[in-house]
Amino acid sequence: MLGHGQIWAAIDALAAKNGFSASGLARKSGLDPTTFNKSKRIAADGRPRWPSTESIAKALDATTTTLDDFLGLVIGGAPEVRKTVPLIGLAQAGDGGYFDDGGFPKGQGWDEIAFPDVDREHAYALEISGDSMSPVFRDGDVVLVAPGAPVRRGDRVVVKTTEGEVLAKELARKTAKQVELRSLNAEHPDRTFATTEVLWIARIVWASQ
Can you tell me the distance from the alpha carbon of 192 to that of 179, in angstroms, rounded to the nearest whole number? Predict the structure, then answer.
């Protein structure tokens, strides 16, 4: 007999396998972002709450996963992972308290996500929101960021300004006086900042696409 925990563990495994958090998988599936959250798994009276067959079907369709493959996750559980990394939504990243002055994650406000091949110290994940980075990065995609890794022209990077703005762009040019960023979406302008206006730059080393 299948247990309540097995089904939810399989959903978590499906999310991790595709580079999503539980909420990211829900958004990718066209569902309310809280559909697969842990708070939804227990009813107010303490009884286990099961995910709907419709929500599971939408998650399988969004990740092009067959029912047989999903049942394999139910039976086998989550895939082996080497490390979990902090996860935060890109829209929240401009708020204070999440990063130190070098762009390294700090504090207690992070969720977590599992990645199978993370070997970079201090790596963390950002969950993309909106369409400002499409078609390269879409709403719900997760990118792995490595602060401290060397950056060069053509790298996709996350930049935080002294004004608290956080952008995902391509590094077009970096000199002693300014940083030039190329937009990933043709409908959004390129940006240029004086180096004094840039708090940190971190390279994107992996994306969930």
Answer: 6
Q: Which of 162, 70, 94, 186 is nearest to 170 (CA)?
A: 186
Helix 67-76 with 4-17: angle, nearest 10 deg: 110
* DSSP letters spanning 96-116: TTSB-TTS-B-SS--EEEEET
Q: Is the pTM of this model over 0.70?
A: no
pLDDT at residue number 57: 94
Distances (CA, A) of 136 to 76, 115, 132, 174, 183: 33, 20, 10, 22, 10
Strand partners, 86: 112
Over the stretch 35-71, which tens digit does the pLDDT of each residue have? 998 888 888 777 888 899 999 999 999 999 998 888 8
- Report which secondary-structure segment, H or E, holds 45: none
